[in-house]
Amino acid sequence: MPKESDRFEDGGDKADVSEETERKTARANRLSPHRGNTPQASPPRLVSVEELMETAKGVTNMALAHEIMVNQDLQVKPTELPEGSLEHRVKEIMHKAFWDCLETQLKEDPPSYEHAIKLLGEIKETLLSFLLPGHGRLRSRIEEVLDLPLIQQQAENGALNISQLSQFVVEMMGSLCAPCRDKDIKKLKQITEIVPLLKAIFSVLYLMKVDMANFALNSIKPHLMQQSVEYERNKFQEFLEKHPNPLDYTEKWLEETVKSLRETDGCAAASSDPPSLLPLNVHNHAYFRLLKWDHALNPFPETVLMDQVRFLEMQQEAERLVLLSSVLLIVYTTTGEAISGLPGLMETLKNTVGVMLAEMHIPSFSMQEALATIGEKLCVELSHCLSQHGFSSFSAERQTILKGQISAIIQPDNTVHKLMDSRIQSYLLAALESSQHKTPPSLPGGLAPVSRELKELSVRFSRLVNYNKLVFSPFYQKILQNLLTPGESPSTEISTP
Questions:
Q1: pTM exceeding the 0.70 threshold for the entire prediction
Q2: Alpha-carbon distance 3 to 34, whole Å?
Q3: How do residues 445-459 score in pLDDT, each as one tens digit?
């Protein structure tokens, strides 16, 4: 059985895409329980260092391809070393020494242009890297002006004009940069001293490289879907072939889902082809169970391990929406018709509660204190609103009832909380099922105040699940063939949009 170090998410945080990606992957590593004490079902095979390195490389590439496809907000970000870190201090010292040396060389009599010419060569190569195949005229212009042999001759003859070349570079950068860099180019044009200008040019060129990488990333996404599905599937198959019993937790996940569906239907294992055990339904419910997963105690299924943090974040968002909708439902049932239809009140109350629940999953967060504070704030808001619109005041008795009901939401058997939780679960499951037909489900009662957030969550959830189905359906099919009786055995591959 694979150990924690063998689980394929370990290569994911090596993809140098963004600090956010690294943070999420590291967080997933912390969430995954240790697997070293699990008894092995078959004897371990000796693996060479070369095999381990090749597997790690393949897993890293697979994680990067997966991140590109499922992360709609994925962006390459500039590397920023932590302020005050040793790396940051060393970088500052080295850069300062370099630019000071350049400034000293340019102030010599006659000036020494050795380092300056090397910098112009680097600038030239960077500018050329931004050009597309149709930029023939710009390419010729850059080659002509930044002709390094000619520049070297000018330097030797004392005829080199660094300032003029720098201004050409700035103008060319202005014609090639994204609109978001226009302000940076404008600042470059205001710098008159050569060394500060060259230093600033390199800073902006670095940002332009990041912009170009993001442009390329967004451009290739639409063309990557089929290739990415096949690539991930093949890489995952290679991973399976190098590890004994690599899908233990995936099998357990699907097995428990089948068992739960059978218990819900009240049917025996020998029942012939119950609708709930159709492959598509099994997988919808299996993925839906990930929104109720105990990440601290239960290992995550191997096939969705790269998305563990995403499922955790969606789970936390669903829990936040349950609490938010529960509080708002209590407010409107407690205060009655007086506040229904008042302009802007719902949004005001929603924002008040939302701010108080924003950090509800931080370990130091006290839900009891937060709900008590929410009750106090809502009473103030409601009293002000009622008096402003000419209604009778919000009595002390009604305020006490409202505060008590809000504080009671965290009780395990709270009716309102259970009701809203059930409705949100039903909506998300219906959204996953209806995504096959591109028809959004109807919104259950009481969820109108959080409809926008709930719809956004359902879209993210459905998109992630459907992509995972595309990649891993062949592996699921093999598992289901062993789990279901012959009469229930899936005859076709799981359909996905």
A1: no
A2: 7
A3: 889 889 999 999 999
